[in-house]
User: Which sequence fits this backbone?
């Protein structure tokens, strides 16, 4: 499996490790490529749009010609995992004129809605498709405040969606790559397959 990590800014190495661990759980290997320019996305089986600073990520993927390629990847049915700032960038409405949202996940998002860096928190949350709760790390996390009709809510905190699936895209308000648990990456990229014991 060839996994591309949008690497213009954000948690690149952590996502690379997590997708390798998820692939290994299925007795597969993942070749991870860091994407900083156009012409690479089309060769990837799966994509990761990491956390970081959403306005910077948005500006750079459009400037480098990567944005349209991400849209083509999703249109072809290939999976994407978008986390934190990645969720904002992939949303239909980022509620911020500085973010040229890709419109890949039919949600509207409030940036930093859970608060500033000092308001970061961790919580064990039930996630649809996982047998046990996931230890989620929220850092300056966005809030999903409106979910489109075709979007499945996978997890909530205090009744507010924090993980969703829209077609081949799984998007989270938290940072699954900052734990040793690859199950969110597994859910995004191997949803129909049994984990090899």
Assistant:
């Amino acid at each position: 499996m060839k996994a591309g990590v949008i690497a213009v800014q954000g948690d690149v190495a952590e996502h690379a490790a997590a997708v390798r661990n998820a692939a290994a759980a299925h007795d597969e290997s993942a070749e991870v490529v860091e994407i900083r320019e156009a012409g690479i996305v089309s060769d990837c089986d799966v994509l990761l749009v990491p956390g970081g600073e959403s306005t910077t990520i948005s500006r750079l993927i459009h400037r480098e010609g990567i944005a349209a390629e991400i849209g083509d990847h999703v249109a072809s049915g290939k999976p994407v995992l978008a986390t934190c700032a990645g969720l904002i960038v992939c949303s239909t409405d980022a509620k911020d004129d500085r973010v040229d949202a890709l419109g890949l996940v039919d949600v509207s998002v409030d940036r930093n809605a859970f608060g500033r860096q000092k308001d970061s928190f961790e919580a064990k949350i039930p996630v649809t498709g996982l047998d046990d709760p996931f230890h989620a790390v929220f850092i300056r996390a966005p809030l999903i405040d409106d979910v489109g009709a075709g979007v499945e809510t996978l997890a909530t905190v205090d009744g507010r969606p924090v993980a969703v699936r829209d077609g081949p895209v799984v998007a989270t308000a938290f940072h699954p790559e900052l734990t040793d648990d690859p199950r969110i990456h597994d859910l995004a990229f191997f949803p129909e397959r049994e984990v090899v014991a």
Observations:
- The first strand starts at residue 2 and ends at 6.
- The chain has five helices and twelve strands.
- The first helix runs from residue 12 to 24.
